[in-house]
Design a protein that fits this description.
- This protein is of the alpha+beta class.
- Helix content is 25%, strand content 25%.
- The strands form 9 sheets. A 7-stranded mixed β-sheet has the order 3-5-1-13-10-11-12.
- α14 (473-485) packs parallel to α15 (512-536).
- The radius of gyration is 27 Å and the shape is globular.
- The model has no long low-confidence stretch (mean pLDDT 95).
- The chain binds dioxothiomolybdenum(VI) ion (MOS).
- Dioxothiomolybdenum(VI) ion binds at residues 213, 243-245, 248, 350-352, 354, 508-509.
């Protein structure tokens, strides 16, 4: 494990000043000469066929350069999913834009207007008249259930587990609960909407400014569809105003701008409206989840059964809401099944802790119901069923301090003062309740590369095709370089968000922190090795002739172990060897064999980190945590106020206490939104979303957010990397909704199983 001094410190983000002073440029803000503006025409029906376009008036409108419809749009090549995936791209939607006249959902792109200004393009798009032959859209999950398919594989492989195996155990168990939990469609709604500017140079070179969680994926998409050499496609995304999964795959607007820019022979810019953020870039689909728990009289689980129903539409994605039920709690037998319907609503996609976010609501509500049934404290019930090994893989967790999370959380939250009897805690007109839930998310590390330059003036530059989606990537990479080289944090600069830099994975699946810091460490180790080799061969060095094993480093210099008189600084070595710069490119391979991010050639195949003391295939990699909520319920008005929240996580080494805390706070707030207010509602007649702006799609605002206390266990995970850090972008949301709903039960005695917990469900 590496020595951490700068790593872990609550250092303010490196890009903070640029952001607060407005100097950080986001995709839509890049000034490009002669740019034209695109605005899509979107379907106004949920299902059917376009019978006619009338573009006459729109074509005559001011400033219009060209109008694309399925009648005249260039044909795109048929997608070979494996080939596309190999190029690093993952299409959010399988229906390519403007290729036929079928309408599969409301808001689908069916045309594109390109004009001199944004206003002209938008006005003309509204003037395009479309006639349809309508069909009835499928949008009701209960109605579609009989037609639902049984999927065999999801993103992590096989999904159906032990179908039918728990029925007998559950039937004969002395204690059981069986309940159905439902969650609604949600949209990601990052502050920054998707935006793309596409600039062609001739017919074989492309520059794209894009708001993305993965510059390599966008570049892969362009090179796949237009048969471009990877080195001829540059995607820039230096700053991203939030992603949460919606910017993790590539959506049709990117293809449309590339297509349009080629046709009009000008750069083209397309910025999604907030309304399009609801219909064109994915969402979290609704789920129906039936959970059965069977135990003996002491609370020991005999069976866990989790039946999941959701839907997909024109995408490979469905919500794997049974994921947490695979790893949480010991039980004699567990059964996890899925049914997936086909819908006429825009495709669902990854959204912050995809799977676990709705899944933990169901499982952790059910655990609370079982605790009530058994009259056992909810923490005690979870502790009784604690498992230190992954119950499915039968492997120990690489790091597992879940009971410590419960204990620390209980102490900080004041769980001991909780009244276990519902409706027994009152303050004036409010009923007070306390609830908790377990949080969990996989710990993934992917292959990542980074270039590093050390200059003779003592500064170090780090380059990688990763991205900072608001999480702190710039900062943690600089912190890692500072410790790995023992140089001041301020001397490190970081350049990312450029697809032509050494490859790194998509910033999804909480994978970036663990992956790119390992790449930085590998690069730093290579530079040190190169410097040491120069020194031990150098007559003028005090390290001349020494073995590399006896050489240590501190304060930008090497010294002989236990003899600080024998030192040689990086700068002196470089000066004597006439080097103004040392440069390396390093690739680090994941220890846990998994990984996201396409099939990119690493930059130096000889230089992989090896975690000598660990056999990674012998471990299961998962993070855990505990969530605690206090609610104040006004029963007359049905209003639930979360008064305070405590969130404890076991996520390995914490790279930066400030940005990490901020991530967890963001996750908890996202969970409060899921629990109390967020719902994309559809008009069942037209299949159109009626919650299309922040006026009607409610997200927590400042007054909805209570004080949130965050604690980390902070022990390194020795098996994930020599730094020991895991990603924390997603675990913060998991379990939040259940903790709040369980607190509502504790306050009121009412069990609410249908999110969001709006006032109508309580009164
Ligand atoms: Mo995250 S939902 O995997 O971008």
């Amino acid at each position: 494990m590496i020595k951490t001094e700068v790593i872990g410190k609550p250092i303010s983000r490196k890009d903070g000043r640029l952001k607060v002073t407005g100097q950080a440029k986001y995709a839509a803000e890049f000034g490009v000469n002669n740019v034209a503006y695109a605005f899509p025409v979107r379907s106004t029906i949920g299902k059917g066929t376009i019978t006619a376009f009338d573009t006459g008036a729109a074509e005559a409108a001011d400033g219009v350069l060209q109008i694309f419809t399925p009648d005249n749009a260039p044909r795109l090549k048929t997608v070979n999913m494996m080939e596309l995936f190999k190029s690093g791209s993952f299409l959010g939607e399988m229906v390519l834009p403007l290729q036929d006249k079928k309408v599969s959902y409301f808001g689908q792109y069916i045309g594109l207007v390109v004009a001199e200004t944004y206003e002209q393009a938008r006005t003309a798009a509204e003037m395009v008249k479309v006639t349809y032959a309508r069909e009835t859209p499928a949008i009701d999950l209960k109605m579609e259930m009989p037609k639902a398919e049984t999927p065999q594989a999801g993103f992590g492989g096989a999904v159906q587990l032990n179908a039918g195996k728990t029925a007998n155990i559950i039937k004969t168990a002395p204690v059981k609960i069986e309940q159905t939990y439902t969650t609604r469609t949600e949209n990601h709604h990052p502050m920054e909407p998707h935006a793309t500017i596409t600039v062609w140079s001739g017919s074989d070179k492309l520059l794209i400014y894009d708001a993305t969680q993965g510059v390599k994926g966008v570049a892969g998409l362009a090179s796949y569809f237009y048969d471009l050499k990877p080195e001829n496609v540059q995607v820039l995304s230096p700053f991203v105003g939030g992603g949460f999964g919606t910017k993790g795959s590539q959506w049709s607007h990117i293809l449309l701008t590339i297509m349009a820019a080629k046709a009009v022979k000008r750069p083209v810019k397309l910025v999604l409206t907030r309304q399009m953020m609801v219909t064109n870039v994915g969402r979290r689909p609704e789920t129906i989840q039936k959970v059965a728990l069977a135990s003996d009289k002491d609370g020991k689980l005999k069976a866990i059964r989790h039946e999941n129903t959701s839907y997909k539409s024109f995408s490979g994605y469905f919500e794997e809401s049974g994921k947490q039920s695979k790893v949480l709690y010991a039980a004699d037998e567990r059964e996890i099944t899925y049914k997936i319907a086909n819908f006429n609503i825009n495709p669902p996609t990854f959204m912050r802790a995809p799977g676990e976010t709705p899944g933990c609501f169901a499982l952790e509500s059910a655990m609370d119901e079982l605790a009530v049934e058994l009259k056992i404290d909810p923490i005690k019930l979870r502790t009784i069923n604690h498992t230190a090994i992954d119950p499915e893989k039968k492997l120990p967790f690489s790091l597992e301090n879940i009971v410590e999370c419960y204990t620390l959380g209980a102490e900080k939250f004041g769980w001991a003062n909780r009244k276990s009897q519902p409706r027994s805690n009152r303050q004036g007109k409010y009923l007070i309740g306390h609830g908790m839930a377990t949080a969990t998310y996989p710990a993934i590390r992917s292959t990542a590369s980074c270039k590093m330059q050390m200059l003779i003036n003592g500064s170090v530059k780090v380059f990688s095709a990763t991205q900072d989606i608001g999480t702190g990537t710039y900062t943690i990479m600089a912190q890692t370089a500072a410790d790995a080289l023992s140089i001041p944090f301020e001397r490190v600069s970081v350049e990312i968000g450029d697809s032509l830099l050494p490859p790194a994975p998509v910033s999804g699946g909480s994978t970036t922190a663990a992956s790119v810091t390992a790449a930085v460490l590998t690069a730093a180790n290579m530079i040190k090795k190169d410097l040491i080799n120069l020194a031990i061969a150098d007559e003028k060095s005090k390290l001349k002739g020494r073995k590399s094993e006896e050489i240590e480093f501190a304060d930008a210099a090497f010294f002989i172990k236990n003899d600080t008189s024998k030192t040689d600084s990086y700068a002196d070595i470089m000066r004597r060897n006439n080097k103004v710069m040392m440069e390396v490119c390093a690739t680090s391979l994941p220890q846990n064999g998994g990984g996201l991010g396409g099939n990119f050639a690493p930059c130096d195949t000889d230089q992989f980190t090896k975690n000598e003391d660990a056999d990674a295939s012998s471990y299961s990699f998962h993070s855990f945590g505990a969530q605690f909520a206090e609610v104040h319920v006004d029963e007359d008005l049905g209003i639930i106020r979360v008064a305070r929240f405590t969130s404890v996580h076991d996520a390995g080494t914490i790279l930066n206490e400030k940005t990490a805390r901020s991530q967890i706070i963001g996750g908890v707030i996202y969970g409060l939104g899921q629990c109390l207010m967020e719902e994309t509602a559809y008009d069942t007649r037209w299949a159109n979303p009626v919650t299309r702006t922040f006026a009607d799609y409610h997200i927590p605002s400042n007054l909805d957010v209570p004080p949130i206390e965050v604690f980390f266990i902070g022990k390194p995970d020795p098996h994930i990397s020599p730094i020991g850090a895991r990603g924390i972008g997603e675990i913060g949301i998991t379990g939040v909704a259940a903790a709040v709903a369980n607190a509502v039960f504790n306050a009121t005695g009412k069990r609410l199983r249908d999110l969001p917990l709006t006032p109508d469900k309580l009164v």
